[in-house]
Amino acid sequence: MINLAYNRGIGSSPRKVDALDKVTGKIKFPGDLSAKGMLYGKLLYSPVAHARIVALDTEQARRVPGVRAVLTAADVPGHNGHGVVIPHQPVLALEVVRSVNDVIAAVAADTLTAAEEALRQIKVELVPLPAVFDPLAAMEPGAPQVHPEGNIAYHLKIRKGDIEEGFAQATVVVEDTYRTQMVDHAFLQPEAVLAEFNHEGHLVLQVATQYPHWDRTELSRALNLPEERIQVITPAVGGAFGGREDMTLQIQAGLLALKTRCPVKMVCSREESFLAHSKRHPMVMRYKTGADREGRLTAVEAKIVGDTGAYASWGPNVLRKAAVHATGPYLVPNVKIDVYAVYTNNPFAGAMRGFGATQPAVAYEAQMDRIAEKLGLHPFAVRWRNAFTEGSVTATGQVLETSVGLRQTMTEAAHRMGWDIEKICNRFLTEKLR
């Protein structure tokens, strides 16, 4: 059935539902919330990337006036871990810290000043452990182990056709290594949460999150509470872009509320926000691409290594997406792709807009430019020659049956640039262009 109300919205400019509240300042973000009898929570992050915790003294912190709770790993009633794929990032570190993301202790106090002073009074003795910060080095034999099961969190292969035959058919072959950097989401509102128990004894969290239903699962598992006794409310978010899919303050705030039976508010400073949430995966991408004299791709071989940091987060899913998109929107008959998500002692990487499809574009598009240069063709012509159309088969074997508008989009863009497409593409493409 056609939704006529929905169709009437196409081509119109309806008012955004929350626009007025936002421009007038009426809307509430988690950092704006408060509750009667509210405490202020703060977290002590690890000062180093890899170390063994040999002593943790919280006695002086507990004596700070106004401090209501100082919690360590021993206070976690359920599973001391969280993670959207593998729940191995500690709520509060027990024996080892694996990155500066790790939280060692949580405090709650009557005032923010008291909470911050309590953090300064916590004494932690750490013995440094060998660390690894380069994902390629982490894959080498003898590299420091971030986790006992090894540093390779995920490996996916994609194979299509005969890669050796593909390169044998090539007139030109280009090879290079490309690197993309870690990127922070830098959303406007840092992490903030208000956690409290209501009159029914249910834990209620108001938090900017992209994953409220999964937050309940993680909270239930760590706090040893039934999910039906946990409510997660999402006020105005203040930006996310993937950075609010992992847990940040939720479990620690809930734990402090559970121990004190008082509402607890936590707000990250900008510096703490950099420690609290995931980053875009840095990737190292080794590409080898072959093409015939007319610019047709004959083969693509790629090895993509993603630095997922100390914890998995969405690493396997992000690198799987990188593999699927490794050949771009181009028809390639012979493909050999290997992708790896690798643990290091860097800050953990997870979801960010593009979700693994963004980084490989840096590599495969640079390869297309270099092929065009070697063959003396316009970069547009090489892309046009290989662009997906309806009926194309991707590197994973998917048949693109409908809605493949790449060439139409390219044509429109070229016209707006004032390019003479037939001249650019030479005679071998003019018939298809008419």
Molecular structure report:
The chain is an alpha+beta fold and 434 residues long. The protein has a domain at 135-183 and 279-433: Aldehyde Oxidoreductase, domain 4 (2-Layer Sandwich), CATH 3.30.365. The chain contains 15 helices and 15 strands. The strands form three sheets. Strands 3-5-1-12-9-10-11 form a seven-stranded mixed sheet, with helices on both faces. Strands 7-15-14-13-8 form a five-stranded mixed sheet. A three-stranded antiparallel sheet has the order 4-2-6. Strand 14 (297-309), helix 10 (315-324) and strand 15 form a beta-alpha-beta unit. The longest helix has 18 residues, at 358-375. The protein starts with a helix and ends with a helix. 41% of the residues are buried. Mean pLDDT is 94; it is low at 430-434.
Keywords:
globular, 15 helices, alpha+beta, 5-stranded mixed β-sheet, 7-stranded mixed β-sheet
In the sheet with the most strands, the strands line up as 3-5-1-12-9-10-11
Low-confidence stretches: 430-434
The strand count comes to 15
Oligomeric description of these chains: single chain
Per the principal axes of the C-alpha atoms, what is the gross shape? globular
pLDDT average, as an integer?
94
CATH homologous superfamily grouping of the domain at 135-183 and 279-433: Aldehyde oxidase/xanthine dehydrogenase, molybdopterin binding domain
- Which fold name fills CATH's third level, the topology of the domain at 135-183 and 279-433? Aldehyde Oxidoreductase, domain 4
